[in-house]
Fold:
Amino acid sequence: MTTFADRIIEFNKQLDFSGSLPNNIRIMNPYKENPLALACSSTFYKKYYNDNEPRHLILGINPGRFGSAMTGVSFTDPKRMVGKCDISFSGQMTHEPSSEYIYEMIAAYGGIKEFYSKFYIHSVCPLGFTIKSAKSKEVNYNYYDNAELLKAAYPFIIENLEKQIAIGFETDICFCFGTGKNETFLRKLNNEKQYFKEIIALEHPRYIMQYKSKNKSDYIKKYLNAFEKF
Structure:
C-alpha cells in the first residue's frame, strides 16, 4: 500500500507544463530543473508523510523562487529545511519571508511533526512563474497576474488540482492562503466543480510579512484558530 509520501513524490515528478505562455513569462519547475529540489523534497515527504493519516489541504498561490523552487516543498526555504526540518541542503541558502512566518506558526501550533501530520501545503498552481522586470531581472509572477497567463494555465491548474485531491486529502474543508485574487479564483472554481464543502481563506504569509509584520502574532493566532479543530 502506498503512503502519502509515495503519492506526493509521484505527483511532483509528473508535473509538466506544455502550454504556451505570454511573452517574457517563464515556468518554474524545480522537480525537472533542479535535481536537488526533487531529492530534498522526497526526503522531506518520506520523513513527515510516510503514512496514511487524514490530512487537510492548504493551497497557496504558486511556488516562489526562493522557497519551494529551491527545496521542492511549499513555504519551506533552504534555511527552514536545514534549521527546522533537520534535512540537509547543499545548494544556495536562500531566505523567504513567507517561510519564516509559516515555521513560526507551525511552532506555535505544536511543532513540525504535529502540523504536518494534519496538513499538507501546496498551491492552486503547483508550478511557479517568473517574468523579466524593467531591469531584465527575473521576479516572481502569479498565475492570476495576467489574463492571458491565467487562460493558458487554467487547464493545467484544473488537472493538477484534481490530482492533488486524488492523493487522498480530506475534502470537507480546504484552506486557502490568500484573501484576494487567490481566494476569488478558488471559490469560483469550487462553486463550479464542488471539490470541497467549505473553503477557509487566510491572509497570505507574504502579505503578512510585507505589510502587517507588526501584527504577525495576531495573524498567527488567527491561523491557529482556523486550524484548532484538527
Remarks:
- The first strand starts at residue 25 and ends at 28.
- DSSP finds eleven helices and seven strands in the chain.
